[in-house]
Amino acid sequence: MSALSAAVAGRKNMQQLIQLRWLAVGGQVATIITALMVFHIALPLPAMSLVLVFLVVLNVLSIARLKLPSAVRNSELLLSLLLDVVALTAQLYLSGGATNPFIYLYLLQVTLGAVLVEAWSTWAVVAVSGAGFALLTILYEPLGLPPGARLDLFQLHIFGMLTCFLLDAALVVIFMNRITLNLRERDARLADLRQQAAEEGHIVRMGLLASGAAHELGTPLATLSVILNDWGREPALRANAEWLQELQDMEEEVKRCKAIVTGVLVSAGQARGERADVTTVKAFLDDVVDDWRAKKMASNINYQREFTDDVLIVADSALKQVIFNVLDNAAEASRDQVTLRASRVEDALTITVSDHGPGFSAEVLEQLGRPYQSTKGRLGGGLGLFLVVNVLRKLGGHVDARNTGSGAVVTMSLPLAALSPSALSQTTLDGNATVNHGSMSRGP
């Protein structure tokens, strides 16, 4: 179990004990009043009231303990259970000992111990409860029956046993269901953490592959650049205008490939913020849209910037690539206009990209953010949305994808605090999460 899951489970278990203790105080008060008013049984009220005060003080201290940031340890849960057992033993000692039918409330303490604390701690609860039961068979204060009372003690004992059984059964069902729900939530958190670790490991492997491929491509690209430069000095080529134009186009494409390779290496090896520029939200978004238009030679983007109260942020290259990826995919799916709308929702930047294409397939929407969920039939496809989801998650944001009936909508939301210059020294975005344009999963 992770430390976070253990901490959450410990606090919830302590809350269950606090609630049960309040029920125990109320039940004991009701039982004492019933014994006095209905059966006229004399009870040592001062001593029993002192035990009730002890339980109330213990609960107050337990509530104060939960306000502390540190995790609730197993030893604290064990101590709470043992103090409850001691309080129960004291009340039973004052009201008939082992002859009191409520003696079987010990089983409730043992049941809780079996679920809430570690195995060795459960046996400690069993030992203390067993010792208390054995002690109460020989050492206790007899019930003070009223003089001349015609109470059928056997029938009274049977009635008490029935009440104890119903109380035990009800409390076990209620609290076991709550505890089981806590365990399920803990298991779900652990499963999410394992899935996240697996996805991050996948991203690391992809980053290593990308950086390795970029290094390997560097040499042939450099060779091509040298050859093209040599060709550019050949008189025969320079005399032919058509060939010279094609040669210049080839040189431009080689330069572009080298720039892409350099970008991959930087993204795969540079920590966030080392070479990032400080800008504003509006300037960053304008730059992203302008760059995308220039690189894709596209004019069919409807850019709606509704962001108010401009703030300083870091021009994160990974976030820029994420937006590129979503725009590329929308443009590929839709021949018509693509819409990018940027707005501020409370303290979060929300970027929505919509298109008029066929939309996402049901499989992709169901497995949102899982790798290789694609219906394009492309080898190695389906990584785009996986990387988008993980990059946004690294920044503390989230991604939502849905169909509108006339296309698809991808909404990216992330806290502005994650992009602020002050967060540079605190937040590191793994450069291995480099987004490959145009690989997002899309429906057929």
Structural write-up:
With 444 residues, the protein is of the alpha+beta class. It is built from twelve helices and seven strands. The longest helix has 80 residues, at 153-232. It is elongated. Residues 269-275, 377-381 and 425-444 have low confidence and may be disordered.
Radius of gyration: 35 Å
- Distance between the ends: 41 Å
Following the backbone from N to C, one meets helices and strands in this order, namely: HHHHHHHHEHEEHEEHHEE
Helix residue percentage: 55-70%
The largest pleated sheet is described as: 5 strands, mixed
With helices defined by DSSP (H or I, 4 residues minimum), what is the helix count? 12
Helix-and-strand structural type: alpha+beta
Oligomer: single chain
Low-confidence runs = 269-275, 377-381, 425-444
In what range is the share of β-strand residues? 5-15%
Architecture blueprint of SSEs:
Blueprint: H1 3-37, H2 45-66, H3 74-93, H4 105-116, H5 119-136, H6 153-232, H7 235-239, H8 241-269, E1 278-280, H9 281-296, E2 301-305, E3 312-314, H10 317-333, E4 338-345, E5 348-354, H11 362-366, H12 384-394, E6 398-403, E7 408-415
Parallel strand pairs: 2-4
Antiparallel strand pairs: 1-3, 4-5, 5-7, 6-7
